Amino acid sequence: MIPALPDGWRWEARDGLRLLVSTRFVDLHVVHAFTTRVGGTSHPPFDSLNLSRGVGDAPAAVAANRARVLEALGHVPDDHVDAAQVHGAEVAEAAVAHRGTTIDRADGLVARDPNVVLAVHCADCVPLLLADVRRGAVAALHTGWRGTAAGAAQAAVKALRDMYGSDPRDLIAAIGPAIGPCCYEVDAPVYDRFAPWPWRDRVFAPARPGHWRLDLWAANRCQLEAAGLSPGAIVSADLCTADHRAFFYSHRRDGKTGHMAALIAPPAR
After folding, report:
1. Residue 223 lies in a domain
2. Which DSSP category does 267 fall into?
3. How far apart are CA 187 and CA 207, in angstroms?
4. Which domain, by its residues, includes 79?
5. Are strands 185-187 and 211-214 parallel, antiparallel or unpaired?
6. Are 84 and 142 in contact (CB under 8 A)?
7. What is the largest CA-CA distance in the chain?
8. 101-149 per-position pLDDT tens digit
9. Is the whole model's pTM more than 0.85, yes or no?
């Protein structure tokens, strides 16, 4: 059964792929998608639309999967730019010169050239997309608990402001599928890393002794609102990757597995 979605989201079937999109981004003509594991060529345990080169999947399968997704978005494979994803809060700019490459030491990317497609890969961590249609700028961010504790979402907003003059009040944000608080239990060292954030108690719920359930969707929403985004400009799919085996990869659930992607291209000007 296809997972139900909250308002502001819809499923799309394109060329055999099952993609998740934000209707707000669609209405503003922002090319983007959150992929699922459906519609690719990879064999178990990466079946079938694995988009990560770093998990042990056959390189030819990953290349074919990436080509399918890029073509479904109206782009060619060489337009793809991804981040190395080091579980931090560094955000880098992607330009035409970066097409077809991975940008080192970054968990987030920003761009304003419509000839690039930004991509981040996740299998429980939060994929986050941002767009400023007024200035034609976008961002893609991978943020797990370490990146969230380090303020990665706020770093992405700051990068858009510093590089392109974006006003946070003009930004829209989409928080894609990630492991939910239903399935994500953490220990005291993780809880303590969030101590500087005034909203910590809003995103942690007590579990067994010395452990808490962490809501990464809510934590990233709190950061975006603190960075100046309107609450109404932020939509979250609220889909737990660990809960929906047929649609999403989950490292915590399966161990060796593939990765989905969140992709976005700056709007044509």
Report:
1. yes
2. P
3. 10
4. 9-264
5. antiparallel
6. no
7. 54
8. 999 999 999 999 999 999 999 999 999 999 999 999 999 999 999 999 9
9. yes
